[in-house]
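Researcher: Quick test of sequence recovery. Tokens follow.
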């Protein structure tokens, strides 16, 4: 059995890598091509560069939001799929942290050109990245509630 956490980390590095390590070559190559397409069409690398240099205004102007909106769901689906195929996530509702991270990151993208934190405009990279944390926490909380209610209904 492959190390599911190691596969997950490779999938975080690039969507599709985890699938390749799991021997799911068609799925892995498809995810890599989709990541490349969204990255190029959304100008994500350029947006990342401007964001890291602190030029949030230019990052916002450069970003192609119509394409960037696809990225969170592709990214977290690829992570979940690779992790599951490697033997992780066998408990019920294990996908919820991944799902809610994708939702919250997408919401972060939507509001990234307007939302400020302590008067600082975060832009299309920092706000979506920061949005992952509450998404994962909400996913784990809902997972916990659903698992507890499932256990109580079986008693």
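Model:
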């Amino acid at each position: 059995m492959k190390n599911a956490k190691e596969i997950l980390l490779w999938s975080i590095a690039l969507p599709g890598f985890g699938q390749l390590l799991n021997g799911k070559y068609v799925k892995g190559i498809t995810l890599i091509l989709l990541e490349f397409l969204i990255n190029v069409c959304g100008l994500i690398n350029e947006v990342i560069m401007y964001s890291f240099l602190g030029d949030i205004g230019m990052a916002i102007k450069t970003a192609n939001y119509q394409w960037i909106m696809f990225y969170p769901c592709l990214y977290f689906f690829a992570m979940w799929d690779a992790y599951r195929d490697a033997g992780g996530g066998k408990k019920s509702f294990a996908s919820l942290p991944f799902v809610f991270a994708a939702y919250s990151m997408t919401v972060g993208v939507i509001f990234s050109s307007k939302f400020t934190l302590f008067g600082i405009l975060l832009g299309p990279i920092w706000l979506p990245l920061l949005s992952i944390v509450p998404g994962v926490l909400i996913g784990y909380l809902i997972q916990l509630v659903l698992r507890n209610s499932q256990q109580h209904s079986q008693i």
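The two ends are 33 Å apart (CA to CA).
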